[in-house]
Design a protein that fits this description.
234 residues, alpha/beta, Rossmann fold, seven-stranded mixed beta sheet, 7 helices, 7 strands, 35% helix
């Protein structure tokens, strides 16, 4: 279990200890990859509004570890992940570093941020990560929509219901929409609305308080398709 002493650790040691608490063992090479990623975030943030995280410790806690906590909600056998509105790359890039056997597609509407994402994918040599510049709505039938995804995120683009609606056309039947939320979680009416459009709540993971903020939680919703004979994307 996590201890208060985590807050006193240097960034690399915090990453190693935090990942271990989440059930993830990081090799020295992967720790080095995260360090390079962290340094590039800080360097690019000096000239553009990349992320609100401004210190190495904040990036590790609220960027890297908060992202890695999402692995608890991944379905067995998941192979493809969509991240809409990736920004500085959270949660997709940290997940891609530790799950390099999976395919990741990042969609980002900001040209500056998509330029950063393409740079970091090349710099970290993430061979199974692709970045698309534009709004997700514009890709219906396009390259990112050319596959049915097992997992989808859209954490920064809209309220929860709009996130889920946006990614539903990209998920295969049985795929998971994973939502990163604060302490309150979604109201009952939002959960009911998600059920009505074809989602089932399947799990919840409480993020440790030292990792990503007090009360953070991650919910997973399985896409089962629209009712009433409506055809869903497959």
């Amino acid at each position: 279990m996590a201890t208060p002493g985590h807050s006193m650790l240097a960034p690399d040691q915090l990453l190693i200890a935090g990942a271990q608490d989440l059930g993830i063992r990081l090799s020295p090479d992967r720790v080095g990859t995260f360090r390079l990623y962290r340094d590039e975030i800080l360097r690019w943030s000096e000239r553009m509004n990349l992320t609100a995280l401004t210190t190495p410790t904040d990036i590790v806690r609220e960027g890297f570890l908060d992202s890695l906590a999402c692995l608890a909600m991944f379905p067995n056998g998941a192979r493809s992940v969509l991240d809409v509105g990736s920004g500085a790359g959270f949660p997709a890039i940290p997940l891609a570093i530790v799950r390099d056997e999976m395919d990741f597609t990042l969609v980002e509407a900001s040209r500056k941020k998509s330029t950063f994402l393409k740079h970091i994918v090349r710099t970290l040599d993430l061979k199974r990560v692709r970045v698309w510049h534009g709004r997700a709505q514009a890709f219906t039938g396009g390259p990112p929509a050319g596959a049915a995804y097992d997992v989808a995120f859209a954490r920064a683009v809209a309220p929860l219901f709009e996130q889920a609606s946006l990614v539903s056309s990209f998920l295969r039947t049985g795929g998971m929409f994973v939502a990163q939320l604060g302490a309150d979680g979604p109201p009952a009416r939002v959960q009911l609305s998600l059920k009505e459009i074809g989602y089932q709540l399947t799990g919840e993971f409480r993020v440790p308080s030292w990792c990503g903020g007090v009360g953070r939680r991650i919910l997973s919703f399985r896409w089962v398709g629209r009712r009433g004979g409506d055809e869903c994307f497959t």
